Amino acid sequence: MNMMWIVISAAAVLSVAALATAWAQSKIGTAGAAALAEKPELAGTIIVLLAIPETMVILGFIVAVLILLRAGGG
Amino acid sequence: MAKVRVLGPKDRFDAALSAVQDFGQLQLAEAPSRTGVERARLSPPEQRRRVQLTRVLAEVEEALRLLSADGARAEVRPATTADLAHWARLADATARAARALRDRETGLEEERALVSRYRDFLSAVLPAVRQVADTARLTSRAVVVPASTRSTVDALTDALREQLGGEFTMSTHELPGGDLAILLVLPREFSDKLDARLAEARVPEVPLPQAYRDMPLERAVPKMLARLDEIPLELRACADDRRLLAASRGAELRQARAAIDDWLSTAAAHERTAVTEHAFDLEGWLPERSLAEFMRRVTAAAGPAVVIESVAREAWGTEDAPVVLSNPRLFRPFEQIIGLLPLPRYGSIDPTPFVAVFFPLIFGMMLGDVGYGVLLAILAVIIHARTERGSFLRTAAEIAGPCAAFAIIFGVLYGEYFGDLGIRLLGIHPIIFDREKAVFAALALAVGLGVVQVVLGLVLGAITAFHKEPKHALGRGVSAVMVLLVVGALLAAFEVLPKGLFTPAVIALLIAFPLLVFAEGVIAPVELLATLGNVLSYARIMAIGTASVMLAVVANQMVGAFGGTVVGLVFALLFHLVNFAIGLFSPAIHALRLHYVEFFGKFYNPGGRPFQPFGHRAGPLVPETTRKLS
């Protein structure tokens, strides 16, 4: 397979996952900051909620690595 | 926890209550409701005093806060009625003085901010303002145009030119933030027209501090500029006054706070006591290890007529019992990590020991660099040495110690010494694998740890649910077995395990499946998939670790990449510093998340009531050895 397409595919996977994570975290971060202002004791829960969407970018990263290593012959 | 009942004749109640308060380890339960007994009530004068003292306490706390004299503890001594009256007056006078100081400081800060903002403009226009003042037929206006409406300046100039011809001058000055300050000089007969035009264009005058608003500009400007030198001296005087006030009244106010708080706590304790005509009945919880000492001390203080009995475990509900985490010294700092969540319910598993092992392990797996690990250890030692016991930073340093140790251990295993510096300079090779190249091995290690922790979580969940919800416990157990079977089948399929194991593993899965549905309902397969997702989530350990090592390698490559070695070295050091900062933050957050979501989700049972014993604000009056709860 053309190396260029392999690299573009890996980049696309990571980019879309990163954008999705960023979008989700921006929403959760805004709501979380507002909630923290009123109830500081929710810090633990907010950290957890904020960290949840990061799974998307991490799995995106794994898939990108797999694409590069498997399809790229690494 | 143990639940105790303190019973005795009514005339020994005050002595018994005082001994309980001195011991400081009994959390009082609601007054028991039984036939023939009633809740003790405060007399009307006591109720009035409570209202007054609550108000005085608020005033005392306000005064201490304003004086920043909140910290130190005060010794509790019995207070007389005269003391309470004196403290009420003292708190009122001190709070008023402290508020006046605070208001003065706020006013000075605002004045300084305002004058500083317009200082350059005022200095620049001062000669013109003085010239205008000397000329009877001229007048001036200083206005400010916000950055967002700067385009209106041209429109304003055109409008003024149209009305006044060329008989005016404008000096503009850009302020921090983009606003424009403008000095307009024009013949006095046009001042009404100018004011009308400015009002129409909604351009405000330069806001001057209150004291100078009615003053002509040529007198106000030099005074305001001179104030910039006077204000710091006045602020220092305010700070000195506050320090003096804190030094002269702080100790007495703290003593007042401790005594009033004691009185109010005792009043609240009265209302949690059941009484008959001749006897009292007080119930509460305390740590089991303190039971014998509690009985000895209260009996000694209140006399043999007061009886203390332990309430049988079957006679009280776990929902009401307070929770106190009790762990060995080494694990205790990790209670802070649990403290970010609601407390676990009474009788459920305290996850602190597991967190104390897995948190540093996961952190170390992610950071995994000897150099960064040593830096973290040095940082932890410095912070530990410079902070007080029990402070947030001291606890953070105590958590950072084991994290640094694991980072060093994994650094040795990965062969990472500030990235690839160990290999390049010293020829040190990895013991298990090189994270820069062996991505799959790192992934397998991360997911392997995920299997261990998630299965452990499911087993703990089964243990927690065993007595009350045996069916749910069965479901957790079956889930744990199925996760292991799925992993076994996958390893057999990829020939990591003997291929012959694949079929038995799949058959076992098919047998376990209906058992899981029976135990957990039709939603169970979805939950099993979520659990497998939880295991995969541990892949972040590899992802963050790889990112960390790649950044370190890039930092090392900067030496020589920027022409001169010194410049490259500086860039490399800066990049390592950034990577170190990221390497502390990111693994900590992700290790927390793996615990809170993936691990705790399997067994953690939140909703416990915090342990708030009845005692003195200054702390229990018992020897240090028996004071510790854990």
Which features would summarize this protein structure in a list?
heterodimer; A: mainly alpha; 3 helices; B: 630 residues; alpha+beta; six-stranded antiparallel β-sheet; 11 strands; 8% strand
Structural commentary:
Chain A contains three helices and no strands. In chain A, helix 1 (3-38) runs antiparallel to helix 2 and helix 1 (3-38) runs antiparallel to helix 3. Helices cover 85% and strands 0% of the residues of chain A. By secondary structure, chain A is mainly α. Chain B is of the alpha+beta class and 630 residues long. In chain B, strands 1, 2, 3, 7, 8 and 9 form a six-stranded antiparallel beta sheet that branches. Chain B has a three-stranded antiparallel beta sheet with strand order 4-6-5, covered by helices on one side. In chain B, strands 10-11 form a two-stranded parallel ribbon. In chain B, helix 13 runs antiparallel to helix 17 (539-557), helix 14 (470-493) packs antiparallel against helix 15 and helix 17 runs antiparallel to helix 18. Chain B starts with a strand and ends with a helix. The chains are: A mainly alpha (74), B alpha+beta (630). Chains A and B meet through helix 2 and helix 3 of A and helix 13, helix 17 and helix 18 of B.
